[in-house]
Amino acid sequence: MALGAIGGFKKGFILEIITLLALILAVIGGFHFLHWGMSVLTDNFQLSGKFLPFLAFLLIFVGIVALVNAIGQVLKKVVHMAFLGGVDRIAGALLGAVKFVFFFSVLIWAFQIFGVELPQHLQDDSFFYTYIVAIAPATVDLFGFIIPASSELMDEISDLLNFSTP
Q1: For the chain, how many structural domains are there in total?
Q2: Could you report the per-residue pLDDT of 103-120, keeping only the tens digit for each?
Q3: 56 and 41 in contact (C-beta within 8 Å)?
């Protein structure tokens, strides 16, 4: 968690929000434009095969992340020109810590989805495990309640990966 806070302090709140937004938009955009991307790759480069969806997703994902991050760099410069750099860094540290915890929750959840369980002694010896493990599933459920389309997206992703979420 401290590593996330340090990274967030260095990046600042604006870039922390932008990188989080970039990842979310890239995942959504990657799946939303997947068929279009596959079509473009097939038509223009005569690509096909089982890796075509992965390549299309990856290219769309990277493109969206790069675009959103470029916009974020401009916003950060504007904020720092307005002498709000200190506030930006402190808020960035807080958000960085939250993102770090969320990342580990997603990682644990992914392990569970793929049937990989952490050794029981690691779970028992960890002070934070019981708190962290529920964050990602609860967040996805919350987004599914607030934005019903995100629930549909999770269903589509599950279908694409041929497994169901817990």
Answers
A1: 1
A2: 888 888 877 776 778 888
A3: yes
